[in-house]
Amino acid sequence: MHCESPIKRRVSRKIWVGSVPVGGDAPIAVQSMTNTDTCDVAATVGQIQRLVDAGVDIVRISVPDMDAAEAFGRIKQQVQVPLVADIHFDYKIALRVAELGVDCLRINPGNIGREDRVKAVVDAARDKGIPIRIGVNAGSLEKDLQKKYGEPTPQALVESALRHVEHLDKLDFQDFKVSVKASDVFMAVEAYRLLAKQIVQPLHLGITEAGGLRSGTVKSAVGLGMLLAEGIGDTIRISLAADPVEEVKVGFDILKSLHLRSRGINFIACPSCSRQNFDVVKTMNELEGRLEDLLVPMDVAVIGCVVNGPGEAKEAHIGLTGGTPNNLVYIDGKPAQKLNNDNLVDELERLIREKAAAKAEADAALIARS
């Protein structure tokens, strides 16, 4: 279905993380984080490449010490995607990765130490055109805020964030983005809502420590979906106790569902029932696995019977409707051919790939003419 998103995004200041614009009128960026040992350069580079293949826009890497900082420099030389260095406590690590070409510094000014150390990091970022992300988490609030509020609250998260923002304001540094993450959906959502009204910088969204693949996906989709539907958010990271590649897939699925980004196939599929004329679940599992490499935005409907099948198929680029004795394929809303169940997935894959190639060529020609 070709619906425009009704979402009106919050107006924010545009910054650049390497070659990726964040905020302003830029597309919402999808971020993930490596979970390899940063000092294992080969493993980290390999994981980053898998994230790139999945479509990631920005990758964050933990840099806990100077050995990791030196490894970060070697990693940076081998990848093209913008890299964010996640740094805590030791300001010298931030200075070193700035020399090595980091694209963004993720710091918490409150744990960097004295004001002169924060200033040194900010000066290095300014000199080299490196943005900063202020990252506030409910699990690591300052002790005085824990005492003041008794427990993590949206107001405590925002107060912590604004305290750090003030650090950068005093140093006349405005190229930063902010996150206020919590594992509780309502706490995170309310914190972002409050913060969105008080600063103009981009917001990086996430439900931190969301859980495993299934539970974390649901929790992230609910929380980020609420915020994105309100126009809040400029980058997202889906935090899963799973392969980071899954974070990227889920991130794009959330954005596709809200018509905020289009990448790859948007499947419309029925949950199946006794009316199905082919095995919908098996067909979908096979198609999703086979077609992960397709990046062309397309709608593909796979419906097991004629109740909703024709209606959904007519709205998709490719649509399959179950029928007896043969299933009917629609292309661009028009009946095209019939397929039996014997080679259903093979034939459907072929048709989808042919349509994707034709669509990519047409899209490229349209861009060239504009």
From TrEMBL:
The keyword Nucleotide-binding does not apply. GO terms for molecular function: 4-hydroxy-3-methylbut-2-en-1-yl diphosphate synthase activity (ferredoxin). Pathway: Isoprenoid biosynthesis; isopentenyl diphosphate biosynthesis via DXP pathway; isopentenyl diphosphate from 1-deoxy-D-xylulose 5-phosphate: step 5/6. InterPro entries: Dihydropteroate_synth-like_sf (IPR011005), IspG_bac (IPR016425), IspG_bac-typ (IPR004588), IspG_C (IPR058579), IspG_TIM (IPR058578), NO2/SO3_Rdtase_4Fe4S_sf (IPR045854). [4Fe-4S] cluster binds at C270, C273, C305, E312. Residues 341-368 form a coiled coil. Residues 266-353 form the IspG C-terminal domain. Keywords: 4Fe-4S, Coiled coil, Iron, Iron-sulfur, Isoprene biosynthesis, Metal-binding, Oxidoreductase. Residues 13-251 form the IspG TIM-barrel domain. Binds 1 [4Fe-4S] cluster. Its EC number is 1.17.7.3. Converts 2C-methyl-D-erythritol 2,4-cyclodiphosphate (ME-2,4cPP) into 1-hydroxy-2-methyl-2-(E)-butenyl 4-diphosphate. HAMAP family: IspG (MF_00159). This is 4-hydroxy-3-methylbut-2-en-1-yl diphosphate synthase (flavodoxin). It comes from Metapseudomonas resinovorans (Pseudomonas resinovorans). The gene is ispG.
